[in-house]
Amino acid sequence: MNRGKITVPGAVFAAASAAGLAVLCAAGPASASQFYGGTLHPGEQRCVQQHADHKVRVDGRATGQGAKFKVQYQNVTVPGTGSPGLVTSYAVELRDTWGNFPGAGDYVACATNNGTADTNVRLTLQTDGEFT
Question: DSSP state, 74?
Answer without folding.
Answer: T
